[in-house]
Q: What sequence folds into this?
């Protein structure tokens, strides 16, 4: 069995099984650093001391781990997190982004404790000739006061 076929078998086994992760508290300094790295220059997004400071909307969907990041053992050789694409941990497969849809439903604020719920919702075989997998993952980012964003991501596994 090829590595991508093993990935398919593993992924199909977890379809619909939710995973939950606490991403920690949004720190204004981290959100401002993200905004600057994204090319923003306005103090409303880049200066935590600004009276109208607000967290860049894309900051929350960029969170994959809480403050402090991940340990060395949590990365694949290609630099992605080992658990980012369901079914692929430890396999010699190529991974590519296959698209992302983001729907914002609330404002992220400094001080919010963020949690994410992630569910693999679909596994499809695609391609003629050399087949590949298209995995669909849905994420819901929440804070105590409610849902902040819903994300649908697709990953290509070869």
A:
């Amino acid at each position: 069995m090829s590595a991508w076929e093993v990935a398919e078998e593993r992924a199909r086994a977890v379809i619909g099984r939710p995973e939950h992760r606490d991403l920690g508290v949004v720190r204004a300094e981290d959100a401002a650093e993200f905004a600057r790295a994204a090319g923003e220059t306005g103090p409303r997004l880049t200066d935590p001391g600004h009276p109208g400071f607000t967290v860049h909307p894309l900051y929350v969907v960029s969170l994959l781990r809480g403050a402090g990041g991940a340990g060395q053992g949590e990365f694949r050789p290609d630099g992605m997190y080992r658990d980012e694409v369901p079914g692929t941990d430890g396999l010699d497969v190529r991974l590519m982004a296959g698209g992302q849809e983001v729907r914002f439903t609330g404002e992220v604020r400094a001080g919010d404790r963020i949690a994410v719920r992630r569910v693999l919702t679909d596994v499809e075989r695609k391609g003629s000739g050399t087949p590949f997998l298209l995995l669909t993952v849905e994420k819901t980012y929440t804070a105590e006061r409610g849902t902040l964003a819903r994300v649908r991501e697709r990953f290509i596994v070869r």
Remarks:
- The longest helix spans residues 3-14.
- The chain has one domain: 3-157.
- The radius of gyration is 17 Å.
